[in-house]
Amino acid sequence: MSAPNNSYDPVEVTALHPDEVARMRDEALAAIAAAASLDELKEVRLAHAGDRSPLALANREIGALPPAAKADAGKRVGGARREVGEAVKARQAALEEERDARVLVEEAVDVTLPWDRAPRGARHPLTTIAERMTDIFVGMGFEVAEGPEVEAEWFNFDALNFLPDHPARTMQDTFFVEAPSGGESGLVLRTHTSPVQVRALLDRDLPVYVVAPGRTFRTDELDATHSPVFHQLEGLVVDEGITLAHLRGAITAFVQGMFGSGLRTRFRPSYFPFTEPSAEVDMECFVCRGASVGRPEAPCRTCSSEGWIEIGGCGVVNPRVLTAAGVDTDRYSGWAFGLGVERTLMFARGVKDMRDMVEGDVRFASAFEREI
Amino acid sequence: MRVPVSWLREYVDLPDGVTARRLAADLIAVGLEVETVDELGADISGPIVVGRVAAIEELTGFKKPIRYCTVDVGTANGTGAPQGIICGARNFTEGDLVVVSLPGAVLAGGFAIGERKTYGRMSAGMICSATELGVWEDHEGIIVLPPGSAEPGTDAYGLLGLREDVLDIAVTPDRGYALSMRGVAREAAAVYGTAFRDPADIEVDGRPGAGPAASVADPGLCSRYVLRAVSGFDPAAPTPPWMRRRLALCGVRSVSLAVDVTNYVMLETGQPLHGWDRAKVSGPIVVRAAAEGERLETLDHVTRALDPDDIVITDATGPINIAGVMGGLETEIGPDTTEVLIEAAHFAPTHLARTSRRHQLSSEASRRFERGVDSAIQPAAATRAVRLLAQLGGAEVDPGYTEVADAGAAPAAITMAAAHPGAVAGVPYGRDTVTARLRQIGCAVTEDGDTLRVVPPTWRPDLTDPNDLAEEVIRYEGYENIPAVPPRAPAGRGLTAGQRLRRAVGRALAGAGYTEALTYPFTGPRDLDGLHLPADDARRGALRLANPLNDDEPLLRTTLLPGLLKALVRNVGRGNADAALFEIGLVFLPRPGAPERAPLPPVDRGPTEEELAALRAALPDQPRRVGAVLAGARERSGWWGSGRAATWADAIEAARVVARAAGAELVVRADRREPWHPGRCAALYLAGDGGERLVGHAGELHPRVVQAYGLPARTAAMELDLDPIEAALAPATAPDVSTYPVAVQDVALVVGPGTAASDVEGALRAGAGDLLEDVRLFDVYSGEQVGEGRRSLAYSLRFRAPDRTLTAEEITAARDAAVAAAAERTGAVLRG
After folding, report:
1. Residue B336's domain spans which residues?
2. How high is the ipTM of this complex?
3. CATH ID of A125-367, from 3.30.930.10, 3.30.360.10, 1.10.10.10, 2.60.40.10
4. Does B581 contact chain A (CB < 8 Å)?
5. Chains A, B: CB contacts under 8 A, how many?
6. Using CB atoms and an 8 Å cut-off, which of residues 105-144 of chain A contact chain B?
7. pLDDT tens figures, B414-441
């Protein structure tokens, strides 16, 4: 390497002359401003801001200058290149914006076009409302018990204190299953979910807090208010020191959880073989809360202006049932209830005809394609 | 039980201001289910009075004979002058007492009575028939009141009970006593704390043992048997209007005085009675079980074969009654009967229940006997009946009567802790309250420290247990006074995994576009034939109902498909051609070797392990299935382009959707099984530790099945056992998500006829090794280029390592290994 040439004059390098740098810069800025498209700008960028652009080439000459001149020349060329670079960026942004504005307008669609390409499904509202009813009790600490739909008469009747030949047994309108020989099989389609009470007591350790949602069967012809196949939600508690007051507490909690806080419940004495004492349960109408009673000008369709809605039956588990399930009745007592799922759906969601719930018409279930 | 309130008031003093509606509400509160309150005659108003027909002028020249009557209505018309009234009826004569609606009266239906000219005369009012007044059904002309029963001008409202409130009570099976005025009145008296006058509290006069000869073969059939007779009865004596009206209000048709009296006393006391024409009964009466082969023609003209379990009443000729259910035709009271023999008995309720069911004869009497009648009331009821026959029918009561009683049939005492009702209710009742309430309903209570000894009254056979007594106390202390105390359940475990999975399956299928149907489990041979099941198919071996609702559907389903397919047809028929349905439900599969009859273990203790096992063994298998059917478009066409028809592949995918909810993988293999298309049917296996398990089938239905059910062409279906999928449910484990780049390699493999794509994919997976992330079949081609019957399967293989970027060599090696495995296992050839 030779020794530095300290005698060089800056003017000897033409490209670094201040006027020349300014000219190159102005030429570049003019070309940038004149670029009408992104493609043109790309060419302009290569020509005026690329590695082989005049300013880039001039920059290389700086090294040839004497040290005293380098700083000044570098400042001028660097400033010019920066200016050009910024102009390219700005022009690029402006041109892109122009292009976007044009293209995206061209790509505009009618967003109100319908989209029903994919099929829509739904679960049946009887399923979802039964789940919701169940979940309220699960929230109280209950578990979900299950049992078969073809049931032994012993579970469906005898163990539940339906004595043979008692009128209550014929009241149930039972479907009987034939033995293969054509005789009596001792099997029925369960007429209620109550046999699950006995199963739960036999299968589980005490105390027992269970609900049992399920399908039940009675020999009613299908019409607007009856179906031979329907659903119940059974509840059973067997523990020490259990009273009717706890039963009313649980059912009131259910009613308030399902239909609204503050709603009251009403017990009316009734009769079921497997509970003694027994009661029918009404809840305060969650629509009119009794305001429609005696006001024909403002009738309530939900409660037929009675102010109360019947929701099911309940009672203290008959100690005979506990005995049949092997429970020590000196120590334990319990209560049970049964709620109708169809009935609940009917009054809760205004279903008017039982047939809608059994025919499998997708229009019916689709209407409930949501959280129930 | 229909309860006319005015009749009830004869036995109980209702407090002032208690309306029928108030009474109904108060009775409901103590457990009598009053279904309706009928306010009969509420739409009748104006002057309706008794009149005496003073003169009848027969008018002629009209289409039918017409009478112009002059009727004395006392001063009811304000003038005291006789009233001129046109009348078309002819069942009365001058001097008869009739019922007259005067001008200003309004009858049922807004029928206003006025003064008008008709048949050429001024007619000022109307002489009324029973039907016009709505008091009872009668089409034989106008009401003619018994002579001397009222003065002209007397208000007819009270006389005939024109306005009457009637409670209709649905009596629960435990409250047989409420099937009588006596029982309801006793309840009302207890509700209001007012006096009760017992209609059965009458002196039974006459000489016991001096009546007709009778014996009871077995006290277990009949614990008390009473006969009383009258003679000199006038068979033509009419039933007085007040009795007819009460019977009508209770829904009982008037037949003849003798029959009406037995019905009336039954309504009054709850004791069913039977009346015979004594002249037709020969020899001593015996109450016994029917003998094999005995027959009896009953009042309804049906000759019935008697069962040895039936209780019969016999005379020297054999059976004359099916006890408590229906009388025999031979000994029926008729228009010539002058001697009436009245029977009041207490028959065994369970026998009567069976007999009533066996002969399909449910009567007012059998309903009461089944629920249990008062076990001591029979002498009083029979006495009441014969007195009415004497009073109303001019008869003479025979001085002797018959009573055969089983002394051992008295109600048993119940021992109960005095605090028990309070413990049941969760409300501390005082001991005095408990004893007072029990005594109020007729119990005899003796106290022994904290224990009560309670003897229920004879009319309450339902009271047998301490809880029965607790209910009596609680219902009178008020169910409404039971507080609501939230139960404190131990911490629950929430839903089981299987219960959660069923919800997840339902949600997944709904998300996939399927709508849930809940179809009936009833099916029949026609449905199974429609599936083209072979004669020996296990699905034909269904359980049969003894009493199906529909004779065409006597079977319980062994498959979900018929119900779903019929629902699909219904949807298509209603204009929804693109329907996809699913159902989750049980099917019923008889268990080979199940016992002929399920056992009935005793209920006075818990069942033993053996008894439980025997009960379980008697039940059929009831596996839970999930089924899906679909037809029409799976994706609809629209402005976006064309749609896509539902196919066999959608049905298989529906099964995969179900399995995925449990994190399970289904293995799909070609199969042939009805009702599916033999070339488009997949068997679905669940891969598990113990190998593969068949869990269901899916595919396109056989065209003949489509035809049989009237389904759209190419309907597809799947059915899957949910229980093994539930069992396979395992919690998901977290994957290692590699952040290194993926390497994608596409390979096209040519395979021969009969090679399943799933086998090729399985071989690729096995051969590719651990670096393989995923395999996806993205194209299937068949055509000349690959050769006759051969297919080219194009797969995209994705490779990735957890810890590094793969080198080109590693990727190629893995791809080659995958292709080699496919070649080896399936004969696939890499397409150049």
Report:
1. 207-409
2. 0.89
3. 3.30.930.10
4. yes
5. 315
6. 113-124, 126-127, 131, 138, 140-144
7. 999 999 999 999 999 999 999 999 999 9
